[in-house]
Amino acid sequence: RLILGIESSCDETGVGIVRLGPDGAVELLADEVASSVEEHARFGGVVPEVASRAHLEAMVPTMRRAVEKAGVELRDVHSIAVTAGPGLAGALLVGVSAAKAYAAALDKPLYGVNHLAGHVAADTLQHGPLPKRCLALLVSGGHSQLLMVEGLAERITELGSTVDDAAGEAYDKVARLLDLPYPGGPPIDKLAKQGNGCAIAFPRGLTGPRDAKYDFSFSGLKTSVARWVERQERAGEEIPLADVAASFQEAVADVLTAKAIRACKDLGVDTLVISGGVAANSRLSGLAAERCAEAGIELRVPRPRLCTDNGAMIAALGAHLVAAGAQPSPMDLSTTPGLPVGTIQVL
Ligand code: ATP
Ligand code: MG
Ligand code: FE
């Protein structure tokens, strides 16, 4: 059974196609993405109107490319999954409207799914089905959450989340501070490779004995980087950019991995999945690998292409729902910009 996935929650128009095997295995056939990130770069963040318009222009060409790449016919598609939330209202609307049009024209069932659950589902395209229980660290541009996953189609519970900025947001803000391009994750990752992560002791948010065990905070870290840079400038000192990037990155990776591993131990879970755009970070996956190996936890991190927004992850989540026998969403499905992660499918 072929499942089509459509993604348009932020600034990536994604169309993915997967094949759901009789044994429940999900095989990736196509993953086409058109990004409007360059149009937002000069604003230092995503401009909602610009994103919606770009989705509108990119949707049909991206769909055509995906169908061609997969070597399939649209009429052979079994069902259509689309991101219903969370995300930007106008951006989501383009994807959901397109999905409804395809579903109606092809007379196929429609599944409105959760973007965040999709980020976790992306991993199954690379590493196969998830165990019955696992923990997911979801770190992206808009979210940073620790999740208990008991079946991708069944139950996702939030154990903790950021109380202020998301991890990706912190990367983007610190990059701006250091005059690096937007989005900030990739340039900081690259620059940090030439720096020393122990050079500057930036704070680790919410790691005190009385702090919430599984929540995160990155806004203090960002402010601390800003103050440090200001002090250097005032003293007429040069800014050791690579050391600042590496030390900031170390603080983020340290907190994220420490809390995720602690949750695994507390809850007796032996598999950790890291997903979302920030999972593409080399130090985060490197440190997680070291610490998981020490703790006897199996670590799963999808390749960078599957970490950032794409349609294949939405198709994968749709496939898991179809495999689990989930009912399709109604054809008057609406978008839910603030959809909580626990709502895997919008009915
Ligand atoms: P959400 O999924 O929460 O709605 P989003 O879809 O905008 O947000 P993603 O596309 O999953 O987020 O991720 C984008 C974020 O990932 C950006 O903040 C970007 O800076 C960050 N990012 C990408 N690559 C890296 C990297 N190598 N290191 C750190 N951060 C990265
Ligand atoms: Mg993006
Ligand atoms: Fe995302």
From TrEMBL:
> Which superkingdom?
Bacteria
**Which residues of this UniProt protein bind substrate?**
L138, V139, S140, G141, G142, D172, G185, D189, N281
Q: Which InterPro entries match?
A: ATPase_NBD (IPR043129), Gcp-like_dom (IPR000905), KAE1/TsaD (IPR017861), Peptidase_M22_CS (IPR017860), TsaD (IPR022450)
Subcellular location, record wording: Cytoplasm
Q: Which cofactor does it need?
A: Fe(2+)
List each copy of the Gcp-like domain by range: 27-315
Task: Give the UniProt keywords, A-Z.
Answer: Acyltransferase, Cytoplasm, Iron, Metal-binding, Transferase, tRNA processing
Q: What does this protein do?
A: Required for the formation of a threonylcarbamoyl group on adenosine at position 37 (t(6)A37) in tRNAs that read codons beginning with adenine. Is involved in the transfer of the threonylcarbamoyl moiety of threonylcarbamoyl-AMP (TC-AMP) to the N6 group of A37, together with TsaE and TsaB. TsaD likely plays a direct catalytic role in this reaction.
Name the UniProt record assigns to this protein:
tRNA N6-adenosine threonylcarbamoyltransferase
